Every structure is written in C-alpha cells, then in structure tokens.
Amino acid sequence: MSIVALEGIAQRCGDFVALDNVSLHVRKGDLHAVVGENGAGKTTLMRILYGALSPSEGRVIVHGQERHYRSSREAIADRIGMVSQHYAIIPELTCLQNLMLGAEPGAVMNLRQCEDRANELAEQMGFTFDWHSRAESLGPAGAQKLEILKLLWRNAEIMILDEPTAMLSPRDADALFVSLRKLASQGATVILVTHRLPEVTEYCQRVTVLRGGKLIDAKEVRDVTRAQLAELIVGHALTAFEARELPQGETALNVQNLVVRGDRGNDAVKSATFQVRKGELVGLAGVDGNGQKELFHALMGTRGFTGLANLNGEDLSGQTTRERLAAGVRIIAEDRLAEALVEDWSLADNAVLGFQRLPSFRVGVGINEATKADRAQQFIAKFNTKCTSTDQAIGSLSGGNQQRFIAARALGENPSLVLAFQPARGLDIDATRAVYQGLRDACSQGAGALIVSFDLDELLEFCDRILVINGGVVSAPHQKERAEIGQLMVGAI
Amino acid sequence: MRPLSPSVRLGILALTCIVIVLIALITSGANPAQVLTTLLTDSFRSPTAFADTLKRFCPYMILGVAVFWALRAGLFNIGVEGQFLMGGMTGTVVALQVGGIGGVLLGAVAGMVVGAAWALPAAWIRAYRGGHEVISTIMLNMIAFQLSNHLVAGPIMDPDAGFPTTRTLGPQDMLGGVPVGPITVNWALILAFGFVVAFGWWLRKTVAGYELSVVGANPTAGSFAGIDVKRTTFAALLASGAIAGFGGGLQAVAFEGRFYMGFSTGYGFDALGVAILAGGNPIGIIPSAFAYSLLQQGSLAVQTLHVPPGIATLILSLLVVLFSAIRYGKVGHANG
Questions:
Q1: pLDDT by residue (tens digit) across A432-450?
Q2: Which residues of B touch A361 (CB under 8 A)?
Q3: pLDDT for B92-107, tens place per residue?
Q4: Same structural domain for residues A283 and A325?
Q5: Cβ–Cβ of A321/B218 closer than 8 Å?
Q6: Is A47 inside a domain boundary?
C-alpha cells in the first residue's frame, strides 16, 4: 500500500515537456530515492507532490485519496514537508524563530512551551540546539538539521529532501542518514532526491529513475547495483574511469608554508605545504568555506599570500595575474557569472577573456579576429557546448553549457597548472567524465591540476591523489580511501 | 494579469513621451506644430545658424567620446563640464601667449593636460580609495566654475572689456577651416569626426579597448583575466578628463577665440546625454551629438515664439529615457 502515489503525471510549459507520463509509488516507512541527471524532472515532480506546481495531467494520491493541492500550504496540512536544495533559513533570526517561522502556534505564543516542544523534537532526533543563538552561526550541517526539525514542527510524515547532502561532509552526511532512518522507523516516509548513488545503495529501500522527463525504472534497491543504476540514469553503458598509476612527473606546483589572509582578516589558508606533479590530477577535498577559494585566488594572483609558491621553478609571488596567465596558470572559477564570464557578451568575446594579452591572440595593438573565431569554435566543440552561434550571448546559455565552455577555455592555450573549482558543476554524468578526461589529457601534455569539489566520491573516482583542506589546514591522507579522508575533512584526526 | 510584451511597453513609453511634450507645448500656449518645426529646422534657416549648430556639434562629439570612454569602464564622469572649462581657459591663455599655429597646437595640448589634471583626484580616489567618482567629479566641477569665474574676472581678464572675458585671439592665431558653399567647416570638426571613428576602432578592435570594456562589464572577471582593474579604472577617468580638456582647448582655438564667463552652455552635462543616446556603439555618438546640437540651436529660436528654451531639454531628456529603455529592454531580453 503506497502512502504516496503519483500516476501518469505530465508537466508541460508551452512546447517544453518537463515530465511525461511519470508515476511514483512510495511505501510508508521507506527511504525512497528519486535519481536522474540535471533536468531529468526530479525537482519538478517533487514540487508537484508538494503542491508548488499543479500537473498538466495525472493524479496525485496521498494517504489513499486523490488530492488537488492548490498550494504548498494544503500539502503541508496533509503532513507533507519539503527541504529544497537551498536552505530557507534566515540568518538574522534565532534558531527557534526559524523553526516556527510560518507555523507559529498562535498570535500569542508561550515561548517556554515552544522551546520545550523544540527540545523534545531535537532530542527525538539526537540533535542539540541552542535555540536562542542566531541561525547564522549554524554550519551547513546544522542548517540541514534545523530544516528537518522544521518539517517535524509542522508534523510532516512525508518528507521530501532535495539533494540534502550537497553541502555536507561525508561524516555529516552519514549522520543525516542515521537520523532519517530513525525517522522512518518511527513511521515517517522520506523521499530523497539525489545524484549521489552511494547514498541510494547504502541507505534507501526503493529507487525511481527518471531521464529526460520520463520514468525509466522503479526498483528495489537490493535488486540493483550502483553501476546498473548509473547506466539507467545516463541511458547507456559506462566504462569505469580507469584508475591509473600515479604519474611520476617532475614537480609542477610546489607550495611551502603558504598563508593566505581571508576576507575577515583571519588566516583562511594556514601554512599549507604540498606539491602537484606534472601529469597529476590532485583533488582537494573539503567542506565549502574551508579555504579552498582563498587558496585558488592566491595561486591565481587575485589575492596576496606569504610563504612560497613555485610553478615549474618560477616564483609566483612576484608575478601578476597576467604574467601567471602567460605562464599557463588557468582557473575554472567558483562563480561562473561573477568571475569567469561577461554575461551579455558573445561566446566569441568571452573566448578571448584571459587570453587577450597572449601573442597568439594579438596583431599589433589589436585582437586577432581569426584566432578569436577559431578558439571560440574550438572551445564550443571540445565539450559540446550547445549554442546557436559564436555570436550568441553567453548569458542566454544554460548553466551547464556555460560550464562546458569555461572548462574548455581553461584547458586551452597550453595550460601548465589548472585550478579547477568544481569543474563538473551543473554537468551531467557524460559531460563530467568528458571534462575530467579533458583535464587528464591536458595533464598528460605536462600540466598539473588542482581540483576542488565538495563531492568526495567525484574526487575519489577521477583524481590521482587527494589532499584534504579543513579550517585552512591542508593535509594528506595515507591512502586514497573514503573513511580516512572523511574524517580529515571534519578534523577528526 | 500577464506582463505586457516588451514592444508594447516601449510603444506605451514612446506615446507617453509624445503626450508629455504635447502637454508642455500646449500649456505654454504655443502651436505645437510650429514649435516643433522651428526646433528641428532652425539650424538650416541660414548659414550663420548652421555654423552655430556646427560650433556645438564639435564639442558634443568630443565630450561625447569623453563620457562614453568612462562609461565603458563603468564610470560616470559628471566632471566633463569642469574639465572642459579648465581646458578651454588654459587653452585660451596659452594660445594668447604663444600665437600662430604653434599657439593653436599648444593651446589644445595644454587643455588636454589640464583636463587630465582636473580628473586626476577623482580618478585616484575612485581607483585606489573606492570613493565614488560621481561625488568627487561634481565637487571638482564646482571648483572649476568658481576658479574659472574668478580668474576670468581678475588675473586673465581683458582690462579693456566691460565684462569677464579674456582678450580675443586674432584669426591668424586660430584654427581655420575648409569653405563648403556658404559656410566654413572648421578643421576641428573634421578632427572630431576622425576622433570618434578612431575611438570606435580602438574600443572594438584593440586589446586595450577590450580590457576597458571587461572592467566596465564585470571587474571581478577582469581581475581573473589578468587585467589590473584599478589601473584601468584610473587610466579611464584620466583619459576621459584629458579628452574633455582637449575639447575645451579646441573649442577656444577653433570657435570661440577667447574664454569668458559662460564659455560653456552646459556642453559637459549635455554630453552625458549624448553618450547615453549613442547606445552601445561609439559611432552612434555622431548622430546623437548632431541631434543635440540641432535641438539646442532650435531651442534659441523657439524663444521668439514665447516658448521657454527648456522645451529642447525636455525633448532630449525624453529621448534619452526612450533610448535607455530600448537598450535596457534588449539586455533583459538576452537574459530571459
């Protein structure tokens, strides 16, 4: 007997079909995973169940009865709750105020009673909260916990979580699943939208796979392997990205006792010492905000540093960003629109960005129009950026296509060091592999790559070696092994 | 309610602008058709009127470039008026001292140097201290007004004149022109045309122009692309001031022949409109500057119809609003 049944759901917007005849059956007490690539329709389907969208066709059946939610308010009254990818927590309010926001017990509140109930809920989950501290003091894990308590506060029995672990360290993610299982054992039902397959195979009972707005399959998790799931998601066989012998090239980047000042005057990177060899893809694992950004900016020259940083024997400290670009330092920046692109400009004009002073891009004082057109085509072709022409404004492309273009640009013009900040951000599985293959190819030509990702599994799969950054301290695990790295990421060793 | 399509909204805006102009004309008690005809055609009434229009056309083009240059770097140089005045005053004094063609050249160059110097504090404060250029250039404008008024009423005043002005340059000490039919096209005007075209090429085709535009469009991306954003900002405001000062010097040695209280009729402020009306393309400065000179010339003539000259300002302002809406609409469309 399903507690939630979505049957024959279609969602159309003009000519665009977001969902086409999709069904979803969720058993009470299950952790039910909904998996698929970006744009497969997972979030749209969840928003329909949550009453935020009404479907063009199909039936929504909850607790055995057909529903026609006109708003999320009605879904919440039906004991459905949803935590979206971006936390809805107001940093200026206290934790208790956030907990109750929009679901206050009445116009006049007995705050002591509210706090008692809050403590009760937290205790039930094994969380502890200082209810009167402001929510801005919460880290990503704390915010996620608060979001779950917000659902419990609203008496939700069906909980929809959209990519809940995207910002969590492996340890916090594991703890989250322990809590979710506990909730499920007490009768709650959890629907989990994710693209991290280990979470599905380790913690969930059933899985529904979507691709391109269509239902591909729904299975018991015990009947399917991780590799089979990946194939269902992309729609074709995937060959494993082969691990290879550790490249033994000479040192490309040599960093000794590097200290980088953060925005708040603290040391964002604390005395980091590490090397990146030629040919090597080095992953930098860590939870967001632990100094990754500052390290990259220091190596790129947009932020000062003390200590030593050498690239192929040349001291970087005396070099401007322009000189580093000429020496082959490239960055796939964290924030596409703010740091890597001019939104309103064409792909061709954006292809020049960063290369404008290189001899190959110049004729006298002018820009070499032939090179510009040629490179724009080349960058588009490298990772299949979908666009109408090189004259199209890059801001009109989807985020994934912008990312493909930026990644291709960073691998162009003979890089010697590629600083890749979440190079696969917003990319599907095929494109992710293509980008990492591109990084490998660039490295086999003599470059080294330092790669930041918040997805440890991605780094484990694609990188030759892994470093961990936590609180600005860079450390090297003994082995490329998940448990040890996970512990280093939260400073547990 | 569904949002209106962009073209419908523009149509409504255009209609509103026309209605506003009509209301203004009717309340002033004039015949709208007559006023508009006078506004648009007065420049072509006589060779003298056309020559006067050209005398405005030249500084509008040069100052339009000055504003456009800064605007491309994301800077709003309100100080063009003050830089123009200081350039004009210095240019006159130098040309009076030196004389001949050398005086013409040195006068224009001196204007350029002083214009740059007048922009220097604003440029430095903006680039290296983060103070907003709009505030600092407005203050520098005030200093320029008061200083030039003081000097022209005192130390550099022609003692024989009954009102604050310098001595006048003789024809041999001024820039000549090419006779075209009944009028003479001053070399300065030809220079201004060439200057706009050269600027357009520089901005669109050179590495320096590209970097300037990146800084204006997205300075953070610029810094990751190896551009020294502070230096580019500094240089852009300095260049803008230099051009404005050059425009002032040129106006003195080519058209005015002297510096006096009221040397500028607000060219620098109008130039802000010229640059915005030009749209995204620097070559657009030419028609935009011509529209400004035409309407400003016409606004003198409409006074004989008992219509305040402000009507031209009103029309130009509404044109700027309309053009900004078209440009802004395009940008919004590309993102949507």
A1: 999 999 999 999 999 999 9
A2: 207
A3: 999 999 989 999 999 9
A4: yes
A5: no
A6: yes
